[in-house]
Amino acid sequence: METGFLGLFYCFTVILFILSIIFFIDCLTKTYIITNERIIFKTPFKNYELNFDKIESISNEPNILQPIGIGSLLVKGLDGTIIKFKNIPKFLEFRNTLLESKENFTKIKDSNSNTIKNNNQSIENKPNNKLSELKELKELLDSGALTQEEFNIEKQKILSKN
User: Fold this and answer.
1) What is the CATH number of domain 2-125?
2) Between the chain's N and C termini, which has fewer beta carbons within 10 Å?
3) Could you tell me the residue ranges of all domains in the chain?
4) What end-to-end distance do the CA atoms of the chain give, in Å?
5) How far is CA 153 from CA 33, 47, 91, 115, in A?
6) CA–CA separation, 126 vs 133, rounded Å?
7) What is the DSSP string of 67-111?
8) Which residues face 42 on adjacent strands?
9) What's the predicted TM-score (pTM) here?
């Protein structure tokens, strides 16, 4: 009876040890990158890139490891997809940085849309000088007031003028 119990105990210990190794490898092989426009999540098997303007909500996922600083997040996209970021080390710091970056992105996006409207009006009021308009547009891109996509659209409009 005692031998059976020891064998079961050893099997349980080995399984627990293997699961612990898998868990720590999982934590160590993930990369989270938060930029000013998106979050990038890389593992050896999956890569996600999610732009902040495509995120509907960010919420905590209950996790028994939160007391030791390891947590999980649910990120819901506007299209209804839900991405679960599991076992994030330094969870609170990561979550706060993510929420702050998304909030800053929203503020900048709102500010830029107003700037673009104002810049479009000022471009329309100037004489039809394509070169000066393109230079001004490039300055806006370099200053960060326009994204590359917005720059390309406005450049195409200028170049297609008669």
Assistant:
1) 2.30.29.30
2) C
3) 2-125
4) 94
5) 28, 29, 39, 15
6) 9
7) GGT-EEEEEEETTS-EEEEEEETTHHHHHHHHHHHHHHHHHHHHH
8) 31, 47
9) 0.53
